[in-house]
Design a protein that fits this description.
The protein is 35% helix and 19% strand. By secondary structure, it is an alpha+beta fold. It binds adenosine monophosphate and magnesium ion. Adenosine monophosphate binds at residues 84, 109, 111, 121-122, 125, 127, 239-242, 286-288, 290-291, 302.
Length: 318
């Protein structure tokens, strides 16, 4: 059982100040700023409407791995800190005028201490989350390829010295990316397939068919497989984005909730909407801004992407 605290975690003011004054921090902050600026421009040009993030909600992403519960009681209700905006994206698309939206959203996921040194996990981070009504996985993957190409060229244009410092050969060119399936890579590489394939790769690639949350659509043509996709950063940096076509039909959502052991009571109004009003068919994805900046600047430990340490299971002074 993972613990939620690193046993001998000590955090000194010296170490905290060293991180705040870290030489790479400002470079990475500038890269993050350039990413966000390019993302807003790209989304605006493609007609996605920005919805503001929520930090508290009666429902949030159940996630497919355990985290420490982060909830408070307020106004007679239980409110969870946002782990992702997945359900709000689906619900916002009930507005017939809205066809596509995005949210730049803080996510709080109190990861267990076993994720302290993966290099990829913080206990709070920022996700760019987007969703399209009546679109499918291939559409979303092509959209993301366009977005990454746009962002990489914006960062290279706006911050040439920084990109040159961390990537003298430049950022990878993004065309149509390779597509792999989890079951194929697992047969080839064994259980650690995602990491091994990422280490070997020089360009990002797609990885399809993960068994996870109830809202990722099961393939009706091939039950037991899922219409979801991750974008994997190369050079061992690993997962950068997760997305899927969504379950939107009431009975199928119930079936998937049973399979994943989800709490139906907590989702009763969401289920009522699906049953009585109908959730729109949609597809989308979300990517971590810090993980993208980490890849661009080739930073081993994501905790160095922020001036304020947010290492899983570890206390921080500020
Ligand atoms: P998910 O839907 O859970 O895959 O989250 C979407 C994206 O957010 C992931 O692909 C990562 O880029 C990013 N992400 C998820 N969890 C974390 C974390 N603990 N720390 C930093 N980034 C994360
Ligand atoms: Mg994921």
């Amino acid at each position: 059982m993972p613990t939620d605290l690193i046993e001998d975690a000590k955090v000194s003011l010296e170490a905290t100040l060293a991180q705040l004054k870290g030489p790479s921090t400002v470079d990475v902050l500038k890269v993050q700023q350039a990413i966000i600026r390019a993302v807003h421009q790209f989304m605006f040009e493609r007609g996605l409407v920005q919805v503001m993030p929520l930090m508290l909600s009666p429902i949030t992403d159940p996630l497919n791995h355990g985290v420490v519960d982060a909830a408070i009681t307020y106004a007679g209700s239980r409110w969870s800190l946002t782990k992702s905006m997945i359900f709000h994206k689906q619900l916002a698309l009930l507005n017939p005028e809205l066809e596509a939206l995005y949210i730049v959203s803080p996510n709080v996921r109190l990861e267990f201490a076993d994720r302290a040194f993966t290099g990829r996990h913080m206990f709070e981070f920022t996700q760019v989350d987007f969703e399209f009504r009546d679109k499918d996985g291939p559409f979303v993957r092509a959209f993301m390829e366009d977005l990454v190409r746009f962002v990489f060229s914006a960062v290279t244009r706006d911050l040439p010295e920084i990109v040159d410092r961390y990537r003298p050969d430049g950022l990878p060119e993004i065309g149509q990316l390779e597509i792999h399936r989890t079951e194929e890579l697992e047969a080839q590489y064994g259980a650690d397939y995602e990491h091994l394939k990422s280490q070997e790769a020089v360009k990002p690639f797609w990885l399809l068919n993960h068994r996870r949350e109830f809202y990722d659509k099961e393939d009706p043509a091939k039950p037991g497989t899922y219409l979801n996709y991750d974008l994997i950063w190369p050079e061992g940096f690993g997962e950068g984005l997760s997305g899927a076509e969504r379950e939107n039909e009431y009975h199928q959502i119930l079936k998937r909730m049973d399979e994943t052991g989800s709490d139906k009571e907590a989702f009763k109004y969401y289920l009522q909407v699906a049953k009585e009003y109908g959730l729109p068919y949609s597809a989308g994805a979300g990517f971590g801004v810090e993980r993208m900046a980490r890849f661009i600047c080739r930073i081993k430990d994501i905790n160095e992407v922020t001036p304020f340490s947010r290492r899983p299971g570890t206390p921080a002074l500020f």
